[in-house]
Amino acid sequence: MAGESGEMTATDVVRSNVRRLRDENGLKQRELVPLFQAHGVEWDLQTVKAFENGRRGLSLDEFFGLLLSFRVGWRELLATEAQGAHVVLLDGAWGLEPGGLEEAMEGTLLERPDYADALTARAEDQERRQTARELERAAAALGVDVPILEYLSRRLWQVSYSFEAKQRFDRARASHPEGDAKTDRALRGHVTRSLMAELRAQLEDVEQLVAGGVVPKRRRKTVERHA
């Protein structure tokens, strides 16, 4: 069912159009049962009611069964422009304006600059999240906080941990142009182990961490324990 903001899921769009097609054909809900079952959609009256009332979804097979039952093309069941429906996909990952669902089905949605920009922004956000997770994992492996990890990285390589990791992976990858996903995982593992070994050596110099202002003196014992 449409949310309070008027947004609909793709399934909401289908159920809205099923009700529309039923009304246009002068059919009652109970009359849909033999029609659907004749075309392989094994719904009883309770299932029809549950679907139209938003208490049930539908499978892709059932979607095609509905197309066959009403003898219409996919546009009739996914039409959004005429009803001004704003559609949300993948738990809100995509918000589509009226007509956007049809464009997505045609494969032309990302030809629009606004959606192409949204995809770029999403990819950049995913990259930032991935970088943050990698930093947290590396810091945890060393037994320090992320700020200490970054201080060590800049002291050792003059760049951030993430930048150094990417540079080394790119160089390693260049020597394996025919590598696949398995090769990439192996290379990333090798790079990570090399980085961690170099960083652990840096943990021996606690005085530099304190002098650098990254670790307050009150935390010196904590860092010494990690060293």
How would you explain this protein's 3D organization?
- The protein is mostly helical and 227 residues long.
- It has helices at residues 10-24, 29-38, 45-52, 60-70, 74-78, 100-106, 113-142, 146-157, 161-174, 181-202, 206-211, 220-226; strands spanning 7-8, 86-89, 94-96.
- It has 2 domains: 7-111, 434 Repressor (Amino-terminal Domain) (Orthogonal Bundle), CATH 1.10.260; 125-226, no CATH class.
- Helix content is 65%, strand content 4%.
- The chain has a 3-stranded mixed beta sheet.
- The chain is elongated, with a radius of gyration of 28 Å.
- The N and C termini lie far apart (57 Å).
- Helix count, DSSP H or I runs of 4 or more residues: 12
Give the overall pLDDT as a whole number: 83
- The CATH homologous superfamily of the largest domain corresponds to lambda repressor-like DNA-binding domains
Total number of strands = 3
Give the second-level CATH assignment, the architecture of the largest domain: Orthogonal Bundle
Strand order of the largest sheet: 1-2-3
